[in-house]
Design a protein that fits this description.
Blueprint (H helix, E strand, L loop, with lengths): L22 H15 L8 H11 L7 H8 L3 H10 L10 H8 L2 H10 L6 H10 L3 H10 L7 H9 L2 H10 L6 H9 L3 H10 L6 H9 L3 H10 L6 H9 L3 H10 L6 H9 L3 H10 L8
Helix pairs in contact: 1-2, 1-4, 3-4, 3-5, 5-7, 7-8, 7-9, 9-10, 9-11, 11-12, 11-13, 13-14, 13-15, 15-16, 15-17, 17-18
Length: 291
Amino acid sequence: MHRPSNKRKTPPSPQYPASPAPALVVTTAADAVCRECLPSHGSALPHVVALLAAFLDPLPRENQLFKACKIGYSTRVIAILAARDPYPNPFRYNVVQAAARAGHVHILRWLSENDEGRGEWQLASQSAAMYGRLETIKWLHENRKHRWTTAAMNLAALKGHLDIVQWLHANREEGCTVEAMDEAASHGHLDVVRWLHENRQEGCTAKAMDEAASHGHLDVVRWLHENRQEGCTAKAMDEAASHGHLDVVRWLHENRQEGCTAKALDCATERGHLEVVQWLRANRGDTSHLP
């Protein structure tokens, strides 16, 4: 008969995750030692403190805080990196703009409360608008008193962020310029173009249709033709031909009077848009003088 063993089983050893090397703390330790042991708490020999920290710390100091704000590290890491770099260059590494661009509100909050001189806050609102960070826009609006400009709505329109354009329209007073509709049209954001047309008074310029044609956005070209009065220039067909947008070239030929210049055939030929070249030779008299 099998008897149960009286031998006590050794409990398994607890498994702890490996701790990362405390590279960031090394500098803090060096600074603390120098502060406590050197004359005048280390302030008399700042170059010695810097040399010791540079020798002991394997990480470069320059640009690390900027990268951390861009990636979205914890505020504890941000605080350590900020302490490692007490003399920031906000014009070279705008950490505020980096955090806003990536939508890291927790970092913006920490910077605002602890180290607001690290960057240009006006650029933060512009970057947040350009990259579609609505929650960041709201936080900046509620917590910062920096100057805003029309660039915020202009950039949001350029990137097609209609929700941000609408929010800025409802909550801010800066508005936009004709650049908003021009750039929205250029990049094919017809929903933004329509909304600006219906809700704002700035309008657009001939650049809107010119650039929409250049980038092949025929739906935008048609809408501008039917709903706006700015029209276009010969650049519209020139650029459409240059980029191989035969459907746009045909539509402009049938519906607009601006025509094109010799550039249309020249560029279409240089870039190998054979169908455009053949169509221009067959349908446009203003290119017949070319060989």
